[in-house]
Design goal:
about 30% helix, about 425 residues, binds shikimate-3-phosphate, alpha/beta, UDP-n-acetylglucosamine1-carboxyvinyl-transferase, Chain
Length: about 425
């Protein structure tokens, strides 16, 4: 641990690139297949640390996984078949594993302890625990109120109608996973539409989900059938290269097989508003998810305002968008994004500190950032804050700077994108700039 990567600026990117399987969809597939009846084959799953954390937790609960190339075979134990575990379940750095697993385990017949790494121990859990307790869950904080480690005792759950205070797909999904084990109907209402991969996957497995505006309801299924799934490429990983191609002169990049679900494609829409040249090709559906190839060329960008209902659709892409904003002519204002303060690190602060180190004009706001673009960035020592998305966003920024940069604790990129730096290196043609 504690690796540094040195990034030489310049060049352009060109060619085709692969992106890892979508992290959100992979984790949902691991959890849902574990409680399904029979064998599910998950093709193209992501191999980032967060997904491995979800696999390890489910292995501890008696689920058998077999890996063959890009295929993961999961033999589910059915609706009620998870084994007890004396050891705590370690979710590592993965908020999605922790939150969704809490929902899945709230209505089981065994007690479980859930924990994670230092970053996850600082992240809010009350938003998940509160509605689950209203459903009858028996969840105890073992050390600190509102934080992991938590103990989930066996409980009988009942359906509730719940108005979510934040547009969080992790919260919505935790309630929907618990809703599978609750008597009656469980209804969640979102303040704005967050990613809907849980709903799509549940529907694909025959679990009845009803949508009415921002209301989503679920009823306990009799059983969950196993199902094969092809995981599309992760737009959140692609985002770093989409931004890089847009800001590095002469770039022309094709990214294949990317999930362009409406609740995730905000990065494309925002960059297009900024003047980016992105083409969506061969739109199709895989496993109920819209997928396409993307073609992205260098283009002059302009500042924009990003706020309101768009924020949940770009929540993981804001560090990358901030780098695009630093290259755009004019001001970019990002508002209503206070959720960024409770991610793997405080991403508003992390982006602001690193951009300032590079000489950018940026102001930190409670709920976002104001970035005055167009000033040439200079190479610097850039802290990843042990946050995968900060490491990758600033590796992208470093490519356009004057002088070398160093990303500290660079290996945290492996949380969602193993091989990120070698792909970055391979796609850049640097010979003309040496
Ligand atoms: C995720 C939801 C988002 C996102 C996270 C993955 C998911 O978190 O930031 O990376 O898979 O449901 P919130 O639900 O906390 O906004």
């Amino acid at each position: 641990m504690g690796e540094n990567v040195k990034i030489k600026p310049g060049g352009r990117i060109s060619g085709y690139m692969p992106v890892p399987g979508d992290k959100s969809i992979s984790i949902r597939a691991v959890l849902l297949s574990s409680v399904s009846d029979g064998v599910s084959n998950i093709s193209g799953y992501g191999t980032g640390e967060d997904i491995l954390s979800s696999v390890k937790c489910m292995e501890q609960l008696g689920i058998v996984f077999r890996k063959k190339g890009k295929k993961l075979t999961i033999t589910g134990k059915g609706f009620d078949g998870l084994l007890p575990s004396d050891e705590p379940l370690d979710c590592g750095n993965s908020g999605t594993t922790l939150r969704l697993l809490t929902g899945l385990l709230a209505g089981q017949r065994n007690a479980y302890v859930l924990t994670g790494d230092d970053s996850l121990k600082k992240r809010p859990m009350a938003r998940i625990v509160e509605p689950l307790r209203l459903m009858g869950a028996d969840i105890v904080y073992l050390k600190k109120e509102g934080r992991i480690p938590i103990k989930i005792n066996p409980a009988e759950l009942r359906g509730i109608k719940y108005n979510m205070p934040v547009a969080s797909a992790q919260l919505k999904s935790a309630i929907l996973f618990a809703g599978m084990y609750a008597s009656g109907t469980t209804i969640v209402t979102e303040p704005a539409c967050s990613r809907d991969h849980t709903e799509i996957m549940f529907e694909n497995r025959g679990i009845e989900i009803l949508k009415n505006g921002l209301d989503i309801s679920i009823k306990k299924p009799d059983n969950i059938p196993a199902s094969d799934i092809q995981i599309p490429g992760d737009i959140s990983g692609a985002a770093f290269f989409i931004v890089l191609a847009s800001i590095l002169k002469g770039s022309e990049l094709t990214i294949r097989n990317v999930c362009i679900n409406d609740t995730r494609r905000g990065i494309i829409d925002v960059l297009e508003n900024m003047g980016a040249d992105i083409r969506i090709l061969k739109s199709r559906k895989e496993g109920g998810e819209p997928v396409a190839d993307l073609e992205d060329k260098y283009s002059k960008l302009k500042g924009v305002e990003i706020s309101g209902d768009v924020i949940p659709k770009v929540i993981d892409e804001i560090p990358a968008i901030a780098i695009a904003a630093a290259h755009a002519q004019g001001v970019t204002v990002i508002k209503d994004a206070e959720e960024l303060r409770v991610k793997e690190t405080d991403r508003i602060k992390a982006v602001c500190v690193n951009l300032k180190r590079m000489g950018a004009k940026v102001e930190e706001k409670n709920d976002g950032l104001k970035i005055q673009g167009g000033k040439k960035l200079k190479g610097s020592i850039l802290d990843s804050y042990k946050d995968h998305r900060i490491a990758m966003a600033f590796a992208v920024a470093a490519c356009t700077a004057e002088g070398h940069s160093v990303i500290t604790d660079s290996e945290w990129a492996d949380i969602s994108f193993p091989g990120f730096y070698s792909i970055l290196h391979r796609l850049r043609e640097l010979e003309h700039n040496e």
